[in-house]
Design brief:
With 54 residues, the protein is mainly α. It is 96% helix and 0% strand. Keywords: Coiled coil.
């Protein structure tokens, strides 16, 4: 019984860790997409500045 309870606890911990891992992956994807968007805006602004100063 003690072994079974410990096994259930470990399985629950594993599920929790896997859920957390998935949440982190999703957040990473969101942040990466935002980074690409901001980099694109920055390139546009840099080009605008370059065009104005030439």
């Amino acid at each position: 019984e003690k072994y079974e309870a410990e096994l259930r606890d470990l399985e629950r911990s594993e599920r929790t860790a896997l859920q957390k891992q998935q949440e982190i992956r999703e957040k990473h994807s969101e942040v990466e997409a935002e980074l690409l968007r901001l980099q694109s805006i920055l390139r546009q602004r840099e080009q605008e500045i370059s065009d104005l100063t030439q």
